[in-house]
Amino acid sequence: MGPPFYRLRYHTHPLKTERYILGTTITTAVFPVAGRGTRFLPATKAAAKEMLPIVDKPLIQHAVEEALEAGARTLIFVTGASKRSIEDHFDWDPELERALLESGKHELVELLRGMLPADASCVYLRQGEPLGLGHAVLCARPAVGDAPFFVHLPDDLIAGQPGCLKQMADHFRNQPHSAVAVETVPRDKTGSYGIVAVEDGTGPRQVRQIVEKPKPAEAPSDLAVVGRYLLTPKIFTKLAATGRGAGGEIQLTDGIADLLKDEPVYAFPFSGKRYDCGSKLGYLKANVEFGREHPEVGTAFRAYLDEL
Ligand code: G1P
After folding, report:
1. Which of 112, 230, 294, 304 has the greatest number of CB atoms lying within 10 Å of its CB?
2. Are 127 and 41 in contact (CB under 8 A)?
3. pLDDT mean over 256-267
């Protein structure tokens, strides 16, 4: 088997980059959603943390909408125990629709039917063992195949116009290489993130080094990877050879560090605001800020906050 088609075209016909770019819409997104969300217990004892709502829309639906906006149509969920509600959420529910129609709630039926476009499909895979984010992404390999793809971590909610993945997809058209979304974090927080060292300059820049959760004193910078990745399929070969790293887990960061030896990887400073919805404080902030802008309750909620 030769190299993947898109790489073949890029590497053997650099002058035809434009044709390659025009031909390369990223159509697959992977959502690693196997984690148990222990930080939100007891809420997450029987429910998926990705189903926690921001006002009235679950985190996983925010994630899917961002991926759809960026052109993804194959939505791959890498799931685990207690995650059935995610499958149900994106499934057709004829009984609910019938009940809503009978009570005249047509607009709610429209809302449910509009959640996914007709040409989107959902694939659910189980991550057999909780071996880490890199392992979760590797589990998606048979469903992704030999094309570049997005990885979206729903805990990181990003409000942006357009969304972060769309910004990254647009960048990919000019720089058809892997990319990780980044933002600056306080030095004392480097131990919570993948941290990158990049080339000098501004805007998207090539990554020189990437390290998973370094201590502040050892961190190569304060530029942190947030939960959006655009990866070429070569990452699978790398992840398959990646041993356990930080926390005893197979880290996506370590796979990317290996990928860097063969291919450029870009650090992409997205525009938008990130909410760390894997933490209670970040989740509350997101609810307050989305609540303030909500078309139905925003005005009343803002008035309530002013009173407070
Ligand atoms: C994961 C990644 C880390 C990245 C972070 C972004 O960590 O391993 O490199 O910076 O997501 O949210 P986690 O938050 O799952 O521990």
Report:
1. 230
2. no
3. 96
Please name the residue that has the structure tokens 């997005």: 150
What integer pLDDT is reported at residue 8 of this predicted model? 36
Whether ligand 1 lies within 6 angstroms of the CB of 165 is answered as: no
Q: Give the other-Cβ count within 10 Å of 275's Cβ.
A: 24
Among left, alpha and beta (phi > 0; psi -120 to 50; other), residue 162 is: beta
DSSP string, 118-169: TT-EEEEEE-SS---HHHHHHHTHHHH-SS-EEEE-TTEEEE-SS-HHHHHH
Domain span including residue 46 = 7-307
Whether 181 lines ligand 1, by a CB cut-off of 6 Å, is no
CB 133 within 8 A of CB 252: yes
Residue 214 CB: number of other CB atoms within 10 A?
16
The answer as to whether 106 is a domain residue is yes
CATH of the domain at 265: 3.90.550.10
Instruction: Decide if pLDDT at 233 tops 50.
Output: yes
The candidate with the shortest Cα–Cα distance to 133, out of 32, 225, 213, is 32
The best mutation among 127, 137, 152, 153 to test binding of ligand 1, ranked by most ligand atoms within 8 Å of the C-beta, falls on 153
Number of domains within the chain: 1
Q: Say whether 228 sits in a helix, a strand or coil.
A: strand
Look at residue 300 and tell me whether its pLDDT is greater than 50.
yes
Q: Is the peptide bond before 204 cis (omega within 30 degrees of 0)?
A: no
Ligand 1 in reach of 153 Cβ (< 6 A): yes
pTM of the model: 0.91
